[in-house]
Sequence to fold (576 residues):
Amino acid sequence: MSAHTAFARQPAGTAVENCSPAFDVENVRADFPILHTMIHGHPLVYLDNAATSQKPNAVIQAMVDYYQHDNANIHRGVHSLSQAATEAYEAARTTVQRFLHAVSTNEIVFVRGATEAINLVAQTYGRQHLAQGDEVLITAMEHHSNIVPWQILCEEKGATLRVAPIDDRGELLLDEFAKFLNPRTKFVSVAHVSNALGSINPVKQIVRMAHSSNIPVLVDGAQALPHLPIDVRDIGCDFYVFSGHKVYGPTGIGVLYGKAALLKEMPPYQGGGEMISSVTFEKTTYNKVPHKFEAGTPDIAGVIGLGAAITYIDSLGIGAIGAHEHELLTHATQILAQIPGLKVIGTAREKASLVSFVMDGIHPHDIGTILDQEGIAVRTGHHCAQPVMDRFGIPATVRASFGLYNTKEEIDALARCIEKVKGILS
Amino acid sequence: MSELRDLYQEVILEHAKSPRNYRVLAAPDYKAEGFNPLCGDRCTVYLSMNGDIIQDIGFQGSGCAISRASASMMTQSLKGKTAEEAKGLFQTFHGIVTGENAANGHHPEIGKLEVFAGVAGFPARVKCATLAWHTMQAALHGEREPVTTE
Fold:
């Protein structure tokens, strides 16, 4: 057993970043069965982590164990299995609460993913508080999931969606952002990390600026959680959302963190079982938070898998993961910059571990197909961020995004294969 | 690598670099826009008719090597064809790039477009090869809304 899996046996939330064992990427890779896959006769080089990450044995096994030993519906039955399932489900909520440094488990709502979390806030808090003529402020680097829910809300309310600009490096222009804050601004929603560019936004500063005008802030942490330590109290945001599958957990599960006082005041999102205290045909009273927002039988196995994923990350230490990934980013930036005709899109000074790039005269799709023939998985296209592509005047990029199990050798393979692309297409 | 060579044949790369009929027609009888939402590729096809015959055809847009070459070679194949022949050729072409027509033997009408048979080994790229064709068909049908490959 490797050092970190032994460490993972400790109770969730007890890992302290500084006490993490030395980060050993080969040990880590052994935890991910899919990394042994061959693609077109080549070992898989998985560089599409910003789309979804691979899953460690700890996550896969936790979900199998649940279905094999504990499967039952939660919060209802008096029988033993229901008790066990409920305990496992709520233990995962505690794991998430500690990882985000939230005050209470009441502030952790399980949803399908970051997208659903943003829609939930738009359709509950947003619907309750926005009126005609109001404004919602986002940035020019948002994923479609942090644009469209606000467009739907603004259309319904006769409100306006405002967009704070970014510069040529892909950094938010904070001075410009400040100018957009005005008495009509009723909500701010920003990415913590840009999925297309990698830029890390100064979310603490953004929250301080918005809060000085009493404007609540949602931070979309889908691309941040796998890379950065998150402390929602330190950031000060009112809502923080993320998806489980980008943080080595299963698909179909995610988290909405909301300050308890706000969640309590918000109307329910969906009606159904679990979200109620009592129902008559005349009147229904709603359950307490977070259950008020968890209508219907949830993805119990998904929640348990997500808990296992966060425990796994915690065992490695998010600080150690971040340091390893920063080395990968530095290496990739240096080595790709040496390729003639290659231009990196997104050169923010504070960046998470992904490199988006274009090449002279070669379309990203053709690059993606040729890389795939060598077993290298990258994302090509607009990355669900068409306004970002428009901002840089390009239809698409190639995006190589790195996770905790990637190596410098894999990045070298990427660079070698890009040279090959030029040989085939030029 | 041999599969890659099947996909990126010399003829295809040459057309991708120097697409034919890459121009706007001044007064087209038909015009349509196509869009591949997966990769962001765009294509506009212009058609001038003489009765039922395609007298002139042009296209513009941005896309990968496969979609540019496909649009370029499509314009070459369709000049002088009737609208019905154009639609029929799309059917045959579609069968070839999806691999469905491979077992049916020879399709003499496909001519030079045979070079796109390699696309069948890359299902993710079928939409690249057919974007211009979908757009052409929409133009002949007089559709005003941009068509998508979805």
Q: What stands out?
A: The CA atoms of residues 200 and 353 of chain A lie 10 Å apart.
